[in-house]
Design a protein that fits this description.
Layout (H helix, E strand, L loop, with lengths): L1 H22 L29 H5 L14 H20 L3 H23 L4 H19 L2 H21 L6 H39 L12 H26 L1
Helix pairs in contact: 1-3, 1-4, 3-4, 4-5, 4-8, 5-7, 6-7, 7-8
Bound molecules: zinc ion.
The site of zinc ion has 8 residues, from loops.
Length: 247
């Protein structure tokens, strides 16, 4: 029953994430404007707003104009639900699990916006920073690690940005500052490492498959986001495993 509620909660939040993914880059309001069809503009009825189920009931089409709705809607909802389920199963009912759910959802929104628009909106980073400050002050209380974490990777990326003449985006720098504050300096370094490995592997695959031409700039944000999430959940174990391997 507990898992079921967590999963449903994740799906409902996932439905709100879809709204954020579409509206934040266009600087549209995310709370007061009701949902409408992207094609015909018809307001979506309340009974067609039930996550996943409405999509299936409508056969993935708008009720009015029958335009196909993006598969992204139910996929994001299910992915967010599954992630919340996994997080609460792994960490148990705790404030940390709650923080990890917020982190996952924010990183998911950032990833999709960064892929499409090659930007990481400041408003999302400010939101995450506020939640992060509340979490660190009230729950985590590892202040030194958080403050070092804020600078540990962001400073490295900032230096790369200066040296490479702006190849490294400002959004990536700010993202790693905020995430470093939340997960601490050890894990944010692991996150950078994992993100770089993901980026290299997938970058090569994209070039080999000719999906991406060499010169085309690939956003780094999605890889960093994946790295942050893996490090946030498994960073301690990964560091332990690595130390055992070396010593
Ligand atoms: Zn329509």
């Amino acid at each position: 029953m507990y898992y079921f509620i967590v999963f449903i909660y994740g799906i409902i939040i996932g439905s709100f994430l879809n709204v954020c993914i579409y509206r934040i880059p266009l600087k549209q309001d995310i709370v007061y404007t009701s949902s409408h069809c992207m094609n015909c503009g018809t307001k979506v009825k309340w009974y067609d707003l039930i996550p996943v189920i409405s999509y299936l009931a409508l056969g993935g089409k708008c009720r009015t104009c029958k335009t196909k709705l993006s598969k992204q809607y139910p996929l994001i909802e299910l992915l967010n639900g599954a992630a919340y389920l996994g997080i609460f199963h792994y960490l148990g009912l705790s404030y940390e699990a709650g923080m990890m759910c917020v982190l996952f959802s924010v990183l998911l929104v950032i990833t999709l916006i960064d892929i499409r628009y090659k930007i990481i909106p400041n408003s999302i980073l400010i939101f995450l920073m506020i939640i992060g400050i509340i979490y660190v002050v009230l729950v985590d209380q590892k202040f030194i690690s958080s403050i070092i974490g804020f600078f540990a990777v962001s400073l490295i990326l900032f230096l790369i940005a200066v040296i490479s003449n702006g190849q490294m985006g400002g959004g990536d720098i700010k993202l790693m500052a905020v995430c470093g504050f939340i997960i601490g300096w050890q894990k944010i370094l692991v996150a950078l490492l994992i993100g770089s490995v993901f980026g290299s592997i997938i970058g090569v695959i994209l070039i080999v498959l000719k999906i991406n031409k060499k010169k085309q700039q690939i956003p780094f944000g999605p890889y960093l986001s994946a790295g942050v999430f893996v490090a946030a959940l498994f960073g301690t174990e990964l560091i332990q495993w690595y130390l055992n391997l070396v010593f």
